[in-house]
Amino acid sequence: MSAAEETQWTVESAIPPQIQSLLSEVSESKPVSYVSLFLQIVSLLKSQRRTGWVDHGIPVCESIADHMYRMGVSTMLIKDRSIDTAKCAKIALVHDIAESLVGDITPYDKVDKNEKHRRELLTINYLSELVRKYDEENGKEILELWLDYEEIRTLEARYVKDIDKYEMLLQCFEYEKQHAGEKKLDQFWSAMASVKTDEIKSWVEDLWSQRQALWAKLESKN
Ligand SMILES: Nc1nc2c(ncn2[C@H]2C[C@H](O)[C@@H](COP(=O)(O)O)O2)c(=O)[nH]1
Ligand SMILES: [Mn+2]
């Protein structure tokens, strides 16, 4: 993608036609009209497949929403009582919300991380503004929770960052099991090194030993 094409990306250009047609139906005189508009943009997360799996030929793979849902549930398992797990769940539910319009960009895509951040920051501000039309405080909260994650501003965000990697690795392990030796997704497992908290490290270490056992069994059959 050329530099010119990259910087041409705007939120407005990323809004798909089915959402564009809704924009003329909201009115600041009717704040509640922004609720369904915002949530129909969120719906895009339910149909967008996670690019990393698509790139590795996983048929019928999970969506971005699937990933965030299981992350939300995962935060409820954190047993460190000093962590505000309700806040973790909220961060999990919004951390990839900008991908509704930006799309799911992997570390191997041609979009560099500054451009990815630029697009996602424009989008989260756009989404936050939509919610503020209905409720100022809720719109601000969604933006702040997203920034907590993006900038790892809190220990809760650090846990969610770790769970983002754990959830991906668990999904990777599930795809490797499903494909019974046909798909060895080694590339993703380098993410283990990014996990920082002791508790989530213990989750990852357990998963890694399960994966090692799986491949020992699969490779013994060959
Ligand atoms: N091909 C690879 N894709 C990867 C890797 N690590 C992450 N990813 C994918 C997973 C998602 O599709 C996307 C970003 O995920 P976020 O949850 O961070 O938005 O990138 C990898 O090692 N290889
Ligand atoms: Mn994520």
UniProtKB/TrEMBL annotation:
SMART domains: HDc (SM00471). Pfam families: HD_3. Residues 64-169 form the HD domain. It catalyses: a 2'-deoxyribonucleoside 5'-phosphate + H2O = a 2'-deoxyribonucleoside + phosphate. Gene3D superfamilies: Hypothetical protein af1432 (1.10.3210.10). Belongs to the HDDC2 family. Catalyzes the dephosphorylation of the nucleoside 5'-monophosphates deoxyadenosine monophosphate (dAMP), deoxycytidine monophosphate (dCMP), deoxyguanosine monophosphate (dGMP) and deoxythymidine monophosphate (dTMP). This is 5'-deoxynucleotidase.
